[in-house]
Design brief:
By secondary structure, this protein is an alpha/beta fold. It contains 14 helices and 13 strands. The chain is globular, with a radius of gyration of 21 Å. The protein starts with a strand and ends with a helix.
Length: 376
């Protein structure tokens, strides 16, 4: 009989950008692939790939019990109707809700992808402590499936979560991100002219957007000749999002350019001399893998996930988190040294070929599915 694979992901565009190659290879190997997700405007695209789509009313950032209960009920119905052989949960809410339900409906095999621990584990204060305590309890309940594999993208996330849920070694795998298509993201020579410094991410405070803008302001005031570019959109559903009024003010000031949402990231990164991501914490940021594949040096923060995506001093530079001055200094070092940028870019491409090839990531996932199915 055809094996059924169900992905549960918070939102459709994230699935397409981070998990689609796995789904397509699973189809090629004979799986009937389903996805349960919150929808934006990607339904037709998902269906064009032959995926069966189940819509969830999943509020990615809301904490209300009403929405959680509705999503739980919807997902329970999906699990009962599809009866998947393997369920693959991606991001925190699907993991917590799906992990609990997988036990109740006796899903044969469960894969959990921890793609960063999120702002719940970065926030401070009494309210944040309460949220972390609740989430920790839910993790303990969600990650008790007897036929389970938990995939981490970096060692720090494993250590943090393992303090909450003690996972046996055979239930843990580490894969360096979701991979990058090396045939699409190619190494091109650095563009001539005024250097372009790009931050491409959702425009959130915890992506380091404010530090990037402050660093750009410092360098502009010093007469640094460079273009500082933000690529991404405001995320009104996220409490840490930059406000549109703030973004418009920065553009009017002339310190940064805003290129909005771009689906042609290979072209965006090839236009850059330097790629910057001053994030507060990540799983393994895809944009840094793509930058390496394009032969672009990186400036990023010395935090979990970000430091795992580069070879410090070889493919890029690390700076302290939330330190705009150190960020400005590192950016300026590379702006003034195109030869070093070329050298780092070449090393970055070699790193991508060795560690970030999407084909390796896809093969590892299919091997995990096969292992769980063969040893229920």
């Amino acid at each position: 009989m055809t094996k059924k694979l169900l992905f549960v992901v918070n939102v459709d565009w994230f699935f397409l950008s981070h998990r689609l190659p796995i789904a397509l290879e699973a189809q090629r190997q004979g799986f009937d692939v389903h996805i349960a997700t919150g929808l934006t405007d990607k339904l037709d695209e998902l269906r064009r790939h032959g995926l069966t789509v189940h819509v969830l009313a999943l509020d990615r950032h809301g904490t209300g019990l009403g929405n959680a209960w509705m999503t739980t009920l919807q997902l329970w119905r999906v699990l009962r109707a599809v009866r998947p052989d393997v369920v693959h949960l991606v991001t925190i809410k699907p993991i917590l809700l799906g992990g609990l339900l997988a036990r109740l409906v006796r899903v044969p095999a469960l894969v959990v992808a921890v793609s960063g621990l999120g702002y719940v584990f970065m926030s401070h204060g009494s309210a944040a402590w309460v949220r972390r305590s609740l989430v920790s309890v839910l993790y303990k309940l969600a990650l008790t499936h007897r036929n389970l594999k938990v995939i981490f993208q970096n060692a720090d996330d494993f250590r943090s979560l393992n303090e909450i849920v003690h996972l046996p070694a055979h239930q843990v795998a580490t894969l360096r991100g979701s991979g990058v298509d090396l045939a699409h993201f190619v190494h091109l020579k650095l563009s001539e002219g005024v250097p372009v410094v790009v931050l491409a991410a959702r425009l959130l405070a915890d992506k380091g957007v404010f530090e990037f803008v402050e660093a750009a302001q410092m360098l502009s005031a010093q007469g640094c000749l460079a273009r500082f570019v933000l690529v991404g959109t405001v995320d009104t559903g996220n409490p840490t999002s930059v406000k549109q009024t703030e973004l418009d003010a920065w553009v009017r000031e002339g310190v940064v350019e805003w290129w909005g949402h771009r689906s042609d990231m290979a072209q965006v990164l090839s236009a850059a001399q330097i790629v910057v991501l001053p994030s507060y914490r990540e799983g393994l940021p895809k944009v840094l893998l793509e930058a390496a594949a394009c032969g672009r040096p990186v400036v990023t923060t010395d935090v979990p996930g970000c430091r795992d995506a580069i070879d410090p001093g070889v493919t890029g530079l690390l700076v302290p988190v939330q330190d705009a001055l150190a960020l400005a200094q590192a950016m300026n070092e590379l702006i003034l040294d195109p030869v070093r940028c070329e050298r780092m870019g070449t090393a970055g491409r070699a790193l991508a070929e060795q560690a970030f090839d999407v084909r390796q990531v896809v093969a590892a996932h299919l091997a995990i599915y096969a292992e769980l199915i063969d040893h229920p």
